[in-house]
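Try this one yourself first.
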């Protein structure tokens, strides 16, 4: 990518199952373009210490826990290198060139396996003391059902992957991860599919409410692959308005934020990682 965010060349490869092979894959890619880049921007799952550039608990890539890939990359290629959490990278992409541009306070919520994202307050992305801010998966929505259960947290209740699997189960589709089939049933207002979808959107509305009580954002941006579905944003807005209408005091105090789909879809991580790098270089 260039400094303006234009993608010059893009590719993908399978993630290895161990740290040594993961690092070697990164080296193999970078070696191909060794004379063509002046910096390296990365994002990854997990809690990212952007100061010391250490990845803590690498999300799905657990072998990244405690690793500092940046040191080895800087030593090998002698160029500035940055790393940022993937959800926060989504927020940075929207702040740079998307729906959060010029927004003083707002939030990015990426709906995927769990709930990630980032909060913008006073024009700045929040990292928090331990770089945990924005990890929405651990927001507790069903405390009465047992805090020891994953099903009480947004990691499950606001998981797009779980919602799609549940819809495919009830419509009899053996391909449980088939998002297209799930949303075909939802858009056709299949009764069982619609019930699951509406409960999912109601959970998202609760998550938005909880974030709003803290940041009082003017705009909430919904990301992830399913954000391209128009019915998703419409239903989340409906469920949030319904939530506010359920309690007069709540409805009078909480002002409805603008809830919109993210501008960037599958490339959000790329733009956000690049913007994090540009901000680091500018410091």
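Now uncover the answer:
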């Amino acid at each position: 990518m260039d400094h303006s965010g234009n993608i010059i060349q893009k590719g993908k490869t399978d993630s290895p199952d161990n740290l040594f092979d993961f690092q070697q894959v990164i080296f193999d890619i970078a070696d191909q373009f060794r004379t063509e880049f002046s910096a390296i921007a990365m994002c990854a799952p997990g809690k990212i210490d952007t100061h010391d550039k250490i990845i803590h608990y690498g999300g799905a890539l657990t072998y990244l826990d405690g690793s500092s890939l940046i040191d080895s990359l800087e030593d090998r290629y002698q160029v500035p290198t940055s790393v940022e959490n993937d959800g926060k990278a989504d927020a940075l992409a929207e702040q740079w060139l998307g729906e959060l541009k010029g927004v003083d306070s707002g939030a990015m919520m990426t709906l995927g396996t769990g709930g990630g994202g980032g909060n913008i307050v006073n024009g700045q992305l929040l990292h928090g003391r331990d770089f945990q801010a924005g990890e929405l998966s651990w927001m507790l929505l069903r405390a009465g059902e047992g805090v020891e259960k994953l099903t009480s947290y947004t990691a499950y209740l606001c998981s797009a992957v779980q919602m799609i699997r549940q819809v495919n189960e009830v419509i009899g589709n053996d391909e449980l991860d088939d998002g297209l089939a799930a949303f075909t049933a939802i858009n056709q207002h299949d009764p069982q599919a619609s019930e699951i979808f509406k409960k999912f959107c109601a959970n998202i509305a609760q998550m938005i409410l909880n974030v709003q009580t803290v940041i009082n954002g003017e705009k909430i941006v919904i990301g992830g692959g399913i954000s391209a579905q128009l019915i998703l944003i419409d239903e989340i807005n409906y469920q949030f308005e319904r939530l506010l209408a359920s309690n007069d005091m709540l409805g009078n105090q909480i002002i409805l934020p603008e809830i919109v789909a993210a501008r960037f879809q599958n490339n959000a991580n790329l733009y956000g990682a690049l913007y994090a790098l540009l901000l680091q270089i500018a410091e």
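Discussion: The two ends are 21 Å apart (CA to CA). Residues 99-261 form a domain with the Nucleotidyltransferase; domain 5 fold (CATH 3.30.420.40).
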